[in-house]
Amino acid sequence: MIEVAIVGGGPAGSYCAYSLAKNNVKPVIFDHSHPREKPCGGLVTPATQELFPFLKDLPIGHGERKRLWLISPSGRKVGLSARRGKIRCFSRLKLDQFLLDMAVNIGAELIRERVTDVGREGGSWKIKTTEKSYVAKTIVGADGLNSLVRRNIIGQLSKADKGICYGYIVRGLEEEEIMIRFLPHRKGYMWIVPRDDHTSLGIGASEASRAQGLRKELDLFIKQNYANFEKICDWAALIPNVKDVRTFNTPIAGSDWVLIGDAAGHVGTIVGDGIMYALIDGELAAQAIAEGHPQMFDKWWKEAYGWRFFRNIRLRKWLYTRPGLELYCNILKVQDALHI
C-alpha cells in the first residue's frame, strides 16, 4: 500500500512530496504531463525567496528585475521597487522540473501515468490510472483547477470561481521591464514578464464567462507596443479566481486527504499569483500528514495567508472599479498585496 499518493507533480505536489520525504514519509507522485510550460508569468518575489531560500540560488536560467511596473486603467505608470532582493522570472517548465527533481532525488517516487479515477475502498483510497490500479492510505490532490481528486471528494470549484487567461510565449522582448496593466473596461489585466531566453505575454479576466474579445485585445496591445519579436507558442487556460469567501468555508482536508495549490483554489484573486501559495501549501500539507493529522492543513493555511485572500476578495468589488484601481496603483501597500 502507498503511504501517501500525490496526484499532480506541479509546484504544490512536488514540494509536498519533497517535504514529506524529508520527514521520512515516502510519497508517490502520479503525473503524466509535468513538467511543462504554463500560461503564467512565473514571478518569484523576494518575499517568496525569503520563505524558501533555495529559490535564491536555483541553477536554472531566469530573468531578474528590481522593479515591477503597474499601469492603471487611465494609463498612469507606477513603479514598485523590491524592498529586498530581486524579482526572479522563471520558465515554468524549468522551475517545475527543478522542483520535481528535488522531490525524486530525496526519495519520492514518480509514476508517469494519468490518473483516471479516485475513490474510497474500505479504509483506503483506490487510484486508477491508464495502466493499473493502486491503493493508498492518504491522498493529496495537487492536480490543478479541474482536480479529479477534488471533484470526487468535495466537488469542483463553481464556474463563478474560475477566471481565464490567453497569451503567448515569445522571443525578443527579454530586455523589457516586468509590467502588469489593469484593463479599463473589464475585471482583468495584461502582463509582460521577461525570463531568460523568452518572455511571457498574457491577458487574464477574472470571469471565464466574459472572455469574449480577450485575445483580440491582447493582440492589439502587442501590435501597438512591441515591434520585433518571434512568437514561439500560444495558449489558453482556466485559472482559479475565487470571488466569494464562502467558497473557503468548505473544508479542503480530512483525516486521510488534502487539497493543495490550484486544486484548493489557492491563487491570488487580484493578479493570479500562485507559486508562493503552492509552496506553502506543499510544506504545510506535508507537515500535517507527517504528524498524523492531515485535517489540520485546513486550519494552518488560513492562519498562514488566508487573511490575504479574505481581504482581497472583499476588496474586489471596489478594486475593479476605475477609481479603485487608480487608487490601488498609487498606494504603497500594493507591495504587500503583491508580496514584493
Task: Please identify the structural class as seen in this structure.
Answer: alpha/beta
Distance between the termini: 43 Å
Shape: globular
**CATH topology call:** FAD/NAD(P)-binding domain
Task: Based on the model shown, name its key terms.
single chain, alpha/beta, seven-stranded mixed β-sheet, disordered C terminus, eight-stranded mixed β-sheet, 30% helix, 9 helices, 340 residues, FAD/NAD(P)-binding domain, globular
Task: Report on the architecture of this protein.
This protein has helices spanning 11-22, 46-51, 92-106, 148-153, 214-225, 275-290, 297-319, 322-328, 334-337; strands at 2-7, 27-30, 43-44, 62-65, 67-71, 77-81, 87-90, 109-111, 115-121, 124-129, 133-141, 162-171, 178-182, 188-194, 199-205, 230-240, 253-254, 257-259. It has one domain: FAD/NAD(P)-binding domain, CATH 3.50.50. Residues 332-340 have low confidence and may be disordered. Helix 1 runs parallel beside helix 3, helix 1 (11-22) runs parallel beside helix 6 (275-290) and helix 6 packs antiparallel against helix 7. 30% of the residues lie in helices and 29% in strands. It is α/β, with parallel strands linked by helices.
